[in-house]
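> example.struct
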């Protein structure tokens, strides 16, 4: 996660090597779509080859993408698109393989707990990585093109260093083979059709929408409210999610996955009206705490409930399918917010500029609908799939 979050400033690479905002958007969209399509295929590969080997191979693919970027001189050529696609596929592989590897080492009733605990390491990486990136790129805006490119090269080199350390850690720690491995190549769609968790996949999509909402919404909202700094939100978000993951690590086993999912969507809905209170950077703390809590509740619980309908030998397909639905929601978040902001309705007070209130109301209603849907349609799995 340190290696990944170092590249939250990927826009510096695009702009430093001759690209514009439109180029950045098209590169990210192309690579994200490609990695989304690759996820389910990776799931079958994890089940056949083993999570440990795909984890190692995916980390090597991520490293290849980083090295490829170091050799680029322009960010608008097909090589830049291909290099980013390689990185995204590596990221999809090591996330899916690592979660699969970990989930196979505990009983089905503790899957959410272990995913949540390991996820706390991700919050640390996501919090620390951008600090390194900001430190390296402190003079980026004032620099001449050669200085900017030097800063970008250092950013990729430090990300590469973290990736190599991660690869070594995987090789040393992930030695135990999976408990059960698919002994033959089963038709992928037949496996998904037989064991898919149904409506839980829709919940995973909406979870992706909810978790991707702050990065898409907070910055333009802050600009509209004349708030210069937004780090308060994201630091508070990470701390809240980290703390709740630790404090509530046994709750999925104690109260059940349904209760955790309902609580997560209630928190997402409750965070929406709190954005109305934002008048300064310190007001961002209120929605950040609630949204971070929702992240801590939802992600491990929904991944667990999506995978529990699959047998262990198809856990890779199950995990990557759930992550693919999450990615689909994440990719859709920016588009939905972008479509809602310009809309005007008579029942809402007229306001100059984008209609942020409409966005908040629509998302709040959506999340509450997911609460009702969860209570009506979802049941905690009582037995392991055969």
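> example.seq
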């Amino acid at each position: 996660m340190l290696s990944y979050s170092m590249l939250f400033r990927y826009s510096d690479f695009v702009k430093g090597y001759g690209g514009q905002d439109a180029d950045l958007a098209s590169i990210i969209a192309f690579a994200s779509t490609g990695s989304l399509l690759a996820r389910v295929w990776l799931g079958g590969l994890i089940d056949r080859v083993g999570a440990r080997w795909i984890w190692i191979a995916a980390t090597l693919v991520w490293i290849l993408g980083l090295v490829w970027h170091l050799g680029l001189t322009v960010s608008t050529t097909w090589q830049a698109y291909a290099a980013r696609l390689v990185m995204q596929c590596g990221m999809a592989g090591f996330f899916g393989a690592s979660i699969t590897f970990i989930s196979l080492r505990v009983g089905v009733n503790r899957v959410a707990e272990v995913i949540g605990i390991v996820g706390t390491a991700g919050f640390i990486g996501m919090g620390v990585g951008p600090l390194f990136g900001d430190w390296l790129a402190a003079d980026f805006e004032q620099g001449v093109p050669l200085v900017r490119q030097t800063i970008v090269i250092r950013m990729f080199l430090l990300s590469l260093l973290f990736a190599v350390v991660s690869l070594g850690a995987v090789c040393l720690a992930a030695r135990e083979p999976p408990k059960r491995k698919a002994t033959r190549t089963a038709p992928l769609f037949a496996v998904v059709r037989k064991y898919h968790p149904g409506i839980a996949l829709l919940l995973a999509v909406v979870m992706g929408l909810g978790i991707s909402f702050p990065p898409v919404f907070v910055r333009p909202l802050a600009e509209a409210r004349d708030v210069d700094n937004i780090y308060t939100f994201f630091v508070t978000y990470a701390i809240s999610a980290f703390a709740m993951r630790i404090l509530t690590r046994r709750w999925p086993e104690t109260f059940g996955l349904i209760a955790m999912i309902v609580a997560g969507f209630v928190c997402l809905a409750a965070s929406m009206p709190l954005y109305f209170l934002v008048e300064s950077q310190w007001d961002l703390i209120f929605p950040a705490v609630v949204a971070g809590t929702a992240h801590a509740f939802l992600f491990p619980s929904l991944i667990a409930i999506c995978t529990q309908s699959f047998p262990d030998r198809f856990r890779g397909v199950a995990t990557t399918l759930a992550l693919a639905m999450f990615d689909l929601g994440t990719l859709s978040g920016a588009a939905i917010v972008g479509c809602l902001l310009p809309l005007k309705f008579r029942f809402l007070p007229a306001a100059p500029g984008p209609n942020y209130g409409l966005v908040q109301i629509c998302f709040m209603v959506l999340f509450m609908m997911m609460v009702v849907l969860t209570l009506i349609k979802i049941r905690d799995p009582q037995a392991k799939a055969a």
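> remarks
The domain at 185-386 is CATH 1.20.1250.20 (Growth Hormone; Chain: A;).
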